[in-house]
Design brief:
α1 runs parallel beside α4. The chain contains six helices and 20 strands. The protein has two domains: 141 residues, Probable inorganic polyphosphate/atp-NAD kinase, domain 1 (Rossmann fold, 3-Layer(aba) Sandwich), CATH 3.40.50; 133 residues, Probable inorganic polyphosphate/atp-NAD kinase, domain 2 (Tumour Suppressor Smad4), CATH 2.60.200.30. The longest helix is centred in the first third of the chain and has 14 residues. α2 links the parallel β2 and β3. It is an alpha+beta fold and 298 residues long.
Length: 298
């Protein structure tokens, strides 16, 4: 059975087009078919690649999707691959790039590993988001986070947050972030939430600039349902999912967040442990570390 890999590149980033061409050349020389997206094909300019519209069907039957860009590009890729189950392998050409598995300097090694099939696939938890208002339901999802945020800059947003059908607290705030472990290093981190290792199964609830005595970040069970209600005294609010999909929330709207049954699949090369990523991305001081403590035999 022939192998096919889908390529996505943030063609607006320096070096993305060159990087995409390098990967495509290595794959084609190894006899692996390549697909590119219609809106990127002209910039990449690879004659032998198949061109597909940027819709989920583009990833159907593909062994893998290689993404060249930052975390935003990878979130875009997740929209095309989640339903088909195609794994995504990210190469970071951006700034932080927590979702990416490799850096630009690893590019040749990434292509070589794909050619030889030396990669694993892990499933990342996704959250389903249900918005209810006046008998109408709207459904969406997020890999990183769903955030309910204020619209009027000069006023606090009044929200009531509940867990598993029980009210928890009323917050006057700028908003609330409900995040996955994958999203703990994104918006939730900026709002003061904890960093959660990707393999931990949990949801995070992080208030944004809340004027309340109890307004700590919460870590709740992945089996829980988190509800955020926009109270009637508000002028309205807005829901953002992964910073890509948005929905206006009128007064009285209720947002329910729970773990999804459909994950996003990421390809792993195991080049860098998550701890090392934290150290590198944030420039954490590790001087004085003496290495793993060895247990003496008795």
């Amino acid at each position: 059975m022939s192998r096919t890999v889908l390529i996505m590149a943030h063609t607006g980033r320096p070096g993305a087009v060159t990087s995409a061409r390098l990967v495509i050349r290595q794959l084609e020389e190894a006899g692996i078919g390549v697909r590119v997206l219609e809106d990127e094909a002209e910039d990449i300019g690879c004659v032998g690649a198949e061109v597909y519209p940027a819709v989920p069907e583009a990833s159907e039957g593909a062994e893998l999707m290689i993404v060249l860009g930052g975390d935003g590009t990878l979130l875009r890729a997740a929209e095309l691959t989640r339903e088909t189950g195609t794994p995504v392998l990210g190469v970071n050409l951006g700034h932080v790039g927590f979702l990416a598995e490799a850096e630009r300097a690893d590019l040749a090694a990434v292509a070589a590993r794909v050619v030889t099939g030396e990669y694993d696939v892990e499933e990342r938890m996704v959250i389903d988001v249900l918005v209810r208002h006046n008998g109408t339901d709207h459904r969406t999802w997020a890999l990183n986070e769903a955030s309910v945020e204020k619209v009027a800059r000069e006023r606090l947003l009044q929200l009531v947050v509940g867990i598993d059908g029980r009210p928890l607290s009323h917050w006057g705030c700028d908003g609330v972030v409900v995040a996955t472990p994958t999203g703990s290093t994104a918006y939730a981190f900026s709002a003061g939430g904890p960093v959660v290792w990707p393999e931990v199964e949990a949801m995070l609830v992080v208030p944004i600039s809340a004027h309340a005595l109890f307004a700590r970040p919460l870590v709740v069970s992945p089996a829980s349902t988190v509800a955020v209600e926009v109270t009637q005294e508000n002028e309205g609010a807005v829901l953002w999912c992964d910073g890509r999909r948005t929905l206006d929330l009128p007064p009285g709207a209720r947002v329910e967040v729970r773990r999804s049954e459909v994950p996003v699949r990421l390809a792993r090369l195991h080049l860098t442990p998550f701890t090392d990523r934290l150290v590198t991305k944030f420039g954490l001081p590790v001087a004085g570390w003496r290495g793993r403590v060895r247990t003496q035999e008795r």
